[in-house]
Amino acid sequence: MPKTILTADDSASVRQMVSFTLREAGYDVVEAVDGLDALDKLNGSTVNMLITDLNMPNLDGIELIRQMRAQPQFKFMPIIMLTTESQDSKKQEGRAAGATGWIVKPFKPEQLVAVAKKVLG
Amino acid sequence: MDQHREAYREEAREILSELETALLKLEETPDDRELIARVFRAMHTIKGSGAMFGFDAIAAFTHEIETVYDRVREGKIPVTPDLVSLTLLACDQIGKMLGEEPADTAAQGKILAAFREKLAGAPPAVKTAAGQSEIAPSPESREASLVSYRIQFRPGKDLFATGTNPILLLDELRALGPHRVTARTDLIPLLPELEPEACYLYWDVILATTKGGDAIQDVFIFVADACELKIDVISDAEAALEGVGDAKPPGASPAERGGPREALLSQELSESGADLALTERQPTLGARQEKAAASSIRVAADKLDVLVNLVGELVTVQARLSQKASAGADADLVSIAEVVERLTAELRDNTMDIRMLPIGSLFSKFSRLVRDLSGQLGKEVVMTTEGADTELDKTIIERLNDPLVHLIRNSIDHGIEPPQARTAKGKQSQGTVHLSAFHSGASVLIQVRDDGAGLDKERIREKAVEKRLIADHAVLSDKEIFSLIFLPGFSTSRTVSNVSGRGVGMDVVKRGITAMQGSIEIASAKDEGTTITLKLPLTLAIIDGLLVRVGDACFILPLSSIDECVELTRQDVANSHGKNLAMIRGEIVPYLRLRQRFGIEGEPPPIEQIVTFQTDGQRVGLVVDQVVGEHQTVIKSLGRFYGGVDEVSGATILGDGNVALILDLPKLVQKAETAETTMHTHRRAH
After folding, report:
1. Do B184 and B201 touch, CB atoms closer than 8 A?
2. Among A20, B118, B126, B237, which residue has the fewest nearby CB atoms (within 10 Å)?
3. How far is A31 from chain B (nearest CA, A)?
4. Final residue of a domain: which of B537, B569, B598?
5. What is the DSSP pairing of strand B626-634 with strand B607-615?
């Protein structure tokens, strides 16, 4: 059974690119437009991994990670955050909140797949 | 990719119009943090996505503006009408770039210069290199040659809290080239201190790769902050020693692959200053020890006892459940009870298995004893062992020590002759004591065999007559003569040495073995040697019992010692003229009435049952009202208040909640005999 990855990003184009790339690589993908939407979708379906942007309206990535780690069923789920090179402090914040790893934007499709393979198998 | 580019264009245009609205509002309320954040996010998205879909010019352009707004967000650059109108200009420019119009580099340059001016006025910020992704593999840095690394990866305890799976990291590492991964388990604490969500493992990896050290660093990029990582280049010679590298590519034969483990061990030993030659001599031992270390945990013995007790309780409750289920007519309940029964049996077997220890640890203690004793007595003796890995319950192993010491002492002292005597008999001057252990059904047989003089039948007989243990004209079989040495106070040794021969040896041995529900047998031939065989149950905590009933009371007899069950009718009793003797298969068997022995009131049923068993080489019967059947017996001790009751070795709880006493059959017979003798003496005195 293919593993399911939830991608949370307020940018439709990023979501589209992430979904397309991961689907090509054999994963199932669920999309969420922000942190609140992500939490909603996490609880409705089986998700094996989360890829989240950090800057999102309503509920940002850091807070999303924090809230997920507080729930037992997401305690050990791999979470990848999308950051930019100018957000080193954000990266630290994300790590502290419990993110597994990060991808620095901009990234190429094969890098995304490599990271998914790295933390999800 | 084109569809993504189109999607990006659409999205960017939406963002730009939102951005315009936000900027205009911001001009009115320059301190609205939410608006500033929205502007920043918009720039961020345009930049990030732009680079991904090939709009590098937009990304580069927006990057500078984003940087300024980052400062604005931090409150280091104020929002001024000037900044807002500059940003609006930038937006128009981005819109033009999206439309793929010829690049107006002059206009872009002017806007950027203005932004840079803003930035220069603000306190400098640490800027990381733009554009390049951190995890991008850089082909140029790859080295062509094979380099060996020793990698020590020691993750923090909270590794799992970040959703990291170390197996994937190791797998990734393994994909880099020939490797050997060793998991270290020594930091795992005992169960009470163990946090189930913490990571206590760490790994040592030897890896030969052409990808270079950066590739290794990349594997651990996400965990680099949260772990101790040491990557050292090691020489090819070292790598060859570790079994990784050119010498042994992956896919080598299994024998070759066995190499690294020993090699690593020897390397560790040499590091700790031990002699390398030593490990070469015992490679298999080293390999086995390491394997054992990697796959076992030490648990306090009393925890196991608690576990066994709990399993015992479970077996009892399960018996009740089965009884209740079979009494009712509920088919569902019966099938559930059957599953519970099967699981309980499995759990019981597994739990008992945990308590099993190889007897080898006991054997190895004796080689010292043999060496010291033979030196003391001027004899040449070697000890050989067989079946050292035979497993026995740890309680039995502990209680076997003293009996075995006695038997080995006897063999060396009485059995094996001095060197001259042996040569005179044409034997090797060096004698052998052979210890062996093997399974036989539900029992374990332990043999102590020597190639000494053998038991002197005549001397035993003489001695027994002299001590009035047998009549001087009694006809005894070899087996009966040998069993005389188990009688209390019997010793044939002419001189009492300080090794053995005090006459307390063999009866103590026998008592020790029978207390464990075991039996002892002797075989001996003159000048060929003596073999003493101990037969022991695998475990003492749970035994197979025979449940019998007398009146309302239930008793358990150890099933292993039972021969058969036959009926005893009133006619049979009448025929024996008041004597407690029954004719069973042409043999006269004396019997005990349990009802009488324990003073149980009430009339026996018309047809009683005799359960026969062997004790001291004699067949004895025990009369009970009813034989109920086999019973899985969990042995519970009776506590110290019952310490003086020898006939009972313990108790068990039956399925219906009643307590059944477990009878010690040899003791029961012994006590009954003594009681009868004193009774006769009393009668004679009157």
Report:
1. yes
2. B126
3. 16
4. B537
5. unpaired
